[in-house]
Amino acid sequence: MIQFLLNRELRSERALDPNTTVLQYLREHRGKTGTKEGCASGDCGACTVVVGELVGERLRYRTLNSCLTFVSALHGKQLISVEDLKDQGRLHSVQQAMVDCHGSQCGFCTPGFVMSLFALQKNAGAVNEYDPHQTHEALAGNLCRCTGYRPILEAAEQACCSKQPDQFDAREAETIAQLKAIAPREMAELSDGEKRCLSPLTVAELAEVYAANPEARLLAGGTDLALEVTQFHRALPVMIHVGQIAEMKQVQLTDRHIEIGAAAPLTDCYAALAAEYPDFGELLQRFASLQIRNQGTLGGNIGNASPIGDSPPLLIALGAEVVLRKGASTRTLPLEDYFIDYKVTARQPGEFIEKVRVPRATPDRLFRAYKVSKRLDDDISAVCAAFDLTIADGVIAEARVAFGGMAAIPKRAAACEATLTGAPWNQQTVEAACDALAEDFTPLTDFRASREYRLLVAQNLLRKCFLEQQAPTTETRVTAYV
Question: What is the mean pLDDT of the chain?
Fold first, then answer.
């Protein structure tokens, strides 16, 4: 059984298909049709809802794509949909702002925008505080096809600058007490009699249940796994949800590493990675949408073994490791050795990624990362490049170069690295290393880019890295190219 709050109503679900998404649950099981399905793939934001959860003694509100969230992920949390904002016949201030600023035309995307604005307003630091950058980030995952964003941005400014206590603030203590009462205390199971989803609470419990069910699919944020249900209409007979395991959601700093639990949402990874590697932080801000980053995990981005995942090239260049666990045994593997072939990894049956270790930055390292995509926000990379160079007295002492989108797996550029290592850091060396990239990769052609384009872009990104280091700029380096 799982328990959660549907706004203020306690819901206990015992016999429900665990393949049911939150979007389906709202529309088909609860009759709440304000939340819309636009794409069923987490791209348009029409299905955006807000989930409240306890962090210590406070409530935290985050947006999610309900089309990619399975109901089991709601266990112990509060689900808020657009119907819940109106109170005693009065529109919520974010709804009123959309009306006042004429932010809606056909209205189909409007509920998603309203929920993103609601979370933005809730998370604003102070009354009458408006941050344009935060607003753009909050709305980047919401697409409007018929009006344009100026009136919606004006609505965001009005909502944040006229922030007043609402019914959620008035009931905060009550909500916290309700969530404490339903906090998970033992492994939960959601099943319709045929399909089931298990939610362990500890790493040891996960190891045990995964060993007993090696055929199960591991579910973290579900932003990739859910597509099998929503896009390919496949049933997932057994899932194990890792989102309740506190140990696997931690981000910790040691003397040598940033240790990131495999179930930590990307939003929670941002501060630590951005502080050590600003380019990594900039890339994370362009990693899909805020809704996806609130849900997707670093462990999941590695575990799905996509050749165009954004984080693996950066992590490989930095020399990151994954800690794999099976039963009571663990082993540590360099991330570059985790990927074997397209969608094939070194993970054994019953083995899972427990955490990721990223070496901390040192003053002598030059780290640059670049994402090339057709649009700036919420898009998949055509090429993702990462360069980690140690330069001493004008000579490259060590070079680690990795790319995504250039092969069947994210991988290092061995010939390019060999050309760079021990050579002077100058234009001649860079040009020779660019030529060497043609030995490292034979990219494919697909709808995102041709093989010729990919190779030329990869070479140009190395040139860009060199030129930026010669004349540092404060402009954003994680650049999109059309």
Answer: 94
